[in-house]
Amino acid sequence: MQPQQLGEQVNGIATLAEPVRRGLYLWVVGQVEPVTRDQASEGVGVARHTAKFHLDRLVEEGLLDVDYKRLTGREGPGAGRPTKRYRRSARELSVALPERHYDLAGAVMASAIERSVRQGSDVGDELELAAREQGAVIGRAASQNLPSRASRAARVDAVTHALAERGYEPRVDGSVVTMANCPFHRLATEHTDLVCGMNLAMLSAVVDELRDPRLTTRLDPAPGRCCVTIDIG
């Protein structure tokens, strides 16, 4: 996660630290239909102007969306102005330190299970294939701006930057890149062989896209870090 992304996530969550604002947010998202300022004010038991201030702040932070609807049921001249209504936005907020990406693991595993069921194939083989496909996507994005004759240092920078964005916290130590964090830590603790195999397949595919035979991956488990390391020659 980039610093700006982390800041945006933290700011969004910090917005809910104010008790009245948090209460309004929880009340709004608990309703079946979008609600008006007056409904929210009454529902939470705060003054109308207070509700307006906090609701609009939640909109500014992307936590609520708004629409406008004439509540009289009439249309045309004399029907009155549409009323502003509030509802939960689609924005997702999550801050985990160290960084975790269980959504990525879930997407890879779901893809593997779907293909295994559809094709009657071995789910372990499909997991490796799905992990490699995801890694190839990451690797292609990392290498797209590299010149064809990019130096090894530039390729290492590209792969470490891509893995840092996904929570691996890569550290260059001499001729080896270690990952100070496993973004799938809890899964890896409970299903070590499965998740380490998935990690190896995915990171191997990332490295393969850098087109440098001196960059290779291997399983090298150690306490307090990801089980995969990258040899950089």
Structure in words:
This protein has 233 residues and is of the alpha+beta class. Helices cover 52% and strands 13% of the residues. The protein contains 9 helices and 7 strands; from the N terminus they run ααβααββαααββααββ. The strands form 2 sheets. Strands 4-5-7-6 form a 4-stranded antiparallel sheet. It has a 3-stranded antiparallel sheet with strand order 1-3-2. The radius of gyration is 24 Å and the shape is elongated. It starts with a helix and ends with a strand.
Give the tags.
single chain, 233 residues, alpha+beta, Arc Repressor Mutant, subunit A, 2 domains, four-stranded antiparallel β-sheet, three-stranded antiparallel β-sheet, 13% strand, elongated
Brief synopsis:
The chain is of the alpha+beta class and 233 residues long. Helix content is 52%, strand content 13%.
* Biggest β-sheet strands, sense, barrel: 4 strands, antiparallel
Cα-to-Cα separation, first versus last residue: 27 Å
Largest sheet strand order = 4-5-7-6
Contiguous helical run count: 9
The domain count comes to 2
**Secondary-structure element series:** HHEHHEEHHHEEHHEE
Number of strands: 7
Alpha-beta classification? alpha+beta
Mean pLDDT: 89
Give the overall form: elongated
Helix share, percent: 40-55%
Rg from C-alpha positions? 24 Å
pLDDT < 50 stretches? none
Percent of residues in β-strands:
5-15%
